[in-house]
Amino acid sequence: MTKAAFRDHLGRPIVAVTGMGVITSLGQGLKDNWAALSGGVSGIHGITRFPVDGLNTRIAGTVDFVELPAENPVERSYFYARETTDEALAQAGLSGHFGGPLFLAAPPIEPEWSARFALADRAPPSQRPGDAYDRFLTVLRDKPDPALHEAWLFGAISERLADRFGTRGLPVTLSTACASGATAIQLGVEAIRQGRTDRALTVGTDGSVTAEALIRFALLSALSTQNDPPQKASKPFTKDRDGFVIAEGAATLVLESLESAVARGARVLGIMKGCGEKADHFHRTRSSPDGGPAIATIRAALEDAGIAEDGIGYINAHGTSTPENDKMEYLSMSTVFGEGLSKIPVSSNKSMIGHTLTAAGAIEAVFSLQTMLTGTLPPTINYQNPDPTIVLDVVPNVKRDKQVSAVLSNSFGFGGQNASLVMTAEPA
Amino acid sequence: MTKAQNDVVITGIGIVTCQGVGTEPHIALLKATTAPELKIDTERFAPYPVHPMPEIDWSQQIAKRGDQRQMENWQRLGVFAAGLALDDAGLKDDADACGTMDMIVAAGGGERDINVDSLIVDEGLKRNDREQLLNEKLTTELRPTLFLAQLSNLMAGNISIVHKVTGSSRTFMGEEAAGISAIETAFARIRAGQSTHTLVGGAFVAERPDVILLYEALGAHATGGWTPLWSRDENAGGGIIGGSVGAFLVLESRAHAEGRGARIYASIAEIGGDRGRREDGRLERRLDALVDGLEAKAGSAIVFSGASGMHALADREKTWLDGRFAGVPVRAYGGVTGHALESQFPLGLALAGLALANEAKVPAFDPLSEGTMDGAADTAIVTTIGHARGEGIAILKAEK
Question: CB under 8 Å to A393, separation ≥6 — which residues?
Answer without folding.
Answer: A342, A343, A344, A345, A346
